[in-house]
Structure formats: C-alpha cells, structure tokens
C-alpha cells in the first residue's frame, strides 16, 4: 500500500529513540516494514547500548547516534539523507522542569527549532513531533514549553519557501505504564499505604504504547503539514486509580 511505499527503503530518524515510545516505534517498524535505515538519536549511551544488544539482529538497519537536540551541528549531521523524522525527545518530568525551567526551554523549545532548521538543511520529507495534553492551556513549564514547541513546528510550514518539508504535531495523553508515569509510581508505593495525589479532582488521559505508535503512524500517513492531531482517548480520575490499587 501507499504507506509501505512511504516507509520501505527510506531513512527514518527518531529523536529520543531510546525512550518507551522510541523503542516501541522502532520494533514496530522493523517487524512490519523494510526501512532502509533507522537512526536512534538520544543522549543516553547506556540505553543505546542496551537497545543495540536487544536488536542486534537488525544491525544492518539500525544506527545509534549519541547526541542532544540542543546540539544543532550534531543533529544536522544525524539527519543527513533522512526522509522522515519522529521527534520524541523532551524533558518531561513536571516537578524537575519547574525547578530547572530554562533546561526545559533549551531542550523542548530551542531543541524544537533545531529540528526544524536541520530538517530544512537536509530536505527531510516529513517531521512529526510528539506533544502532550499538558500543552493545552498549560499550567506548568513543561506544558508551556511543549505548547511553544508545537507552535514552532506548525509555523515552520509557513516560511519554508520552495522546500517540500512538512511539519505536523501529535498531541496525546499519558502512555500507560511508561517510565515515570502514575501506574509504575503507584506500584512502588503499594506498601506505603500512601499515594501522593495533588488534587482529588485530577484526571489523566490514557493511551497504551501500541495505540500511541499506531496513532503516530496513521498521522504520518495522512498529514499535509500544519495539523495538530489529537486522538479520542479515555480518561480516569487519579483518585479512582489509587482506590483500585488499594483494594
């Protein structure tokens, strides 16, 4: 089909490629398609080493680039001959971002502009940036930086001139069971008989990793440039989750 033609024999770069989403996207692409090359771009050498070992049978396809989206020259080099970019790298931890706000700005905002500029330089076909529900009416620095990031990607379609690069955003909720999210955090606190809930009215939009990967790939398939794709996904009250753990 048309999407197989898009992915097969093309080069793909995943920023934050050693994270939960990046690893699952990589495995899905390797299992279902025949990409020419998948470049895993991230800062963590340990995670890259572990991923390299786990996927050693695909060494002809995978490339592991240690780098930071803040480092424009390195990013531009990694993006050479790349067709599609999935931008998943971000500083996501809400309390740490509050305590280190400009670090979140450097990765989530300046890093986003670096993605845009490097994509221009390398004539990338499409860039799909991963965002968060916290970017909608943000109340914390993480959400605010991701809102700014989303705006940069959408605006990038307006001043690309004759370049054919397309930029779009996917904005979904919490990935169920992902590192640092509420379910593994509550699991570790089971024996404490105490769950730290900021407000009993607090809710979470929830999506599984498989659903997230499918949603992102479907968005890539239909994007024209300039969209913010938002899935219809269920939500739950965090206090109800805590009660379920406690029962």
What does this structure look like?
By secondary structure, the protein is of the alpha/beta class. The chain contains ten helices and ten strands. It has helices spanning 2-7, 20-32, 45-54, 72-78, 94-99, 101-121, 141-155, 182-188, 209-222, 238-246, and strands at residues 11-15, 37-42, 62-66, 84-87, 126-132, 166-172, 174-175, 203-207, 228-229, 235-237. Strands 3-2-1-4-5-6-9 form a seven-stranded parallel sheet, sandwiched between helices. A three-stranded mixed sheet has the order 7-8-10. The protein starts with a helix and ends with a helix. The model has no long low-confidence stretch (mean pLDDT 92).
Approximate strand percentage: 15-25%
Structural class: alpha/beta
How would you write the strand order of the largest sheet?
Answer: 3-2-1-4-5-6-9
Low-confidence spans: pLDDT under 50, at least 5 residues? none
Give Rg in angstroms.
Answer: 18 Å
Element pattern in H and E: HEHEHEHEHHEHEEHEHEEH
Spatial separation of the terminal alpha carbons: 48 Å
Query: Biggest β-sheet: count, sense, barrel?
Result: 7 strands, parallel
Mean pLDDT: 92
Oligomer: single chain
Helix content: 40-55%
* Strand segment tally: 10
- Helix count, per DSSP? 10
What would the principal axes of the Cα set say about the shape?
A: globular
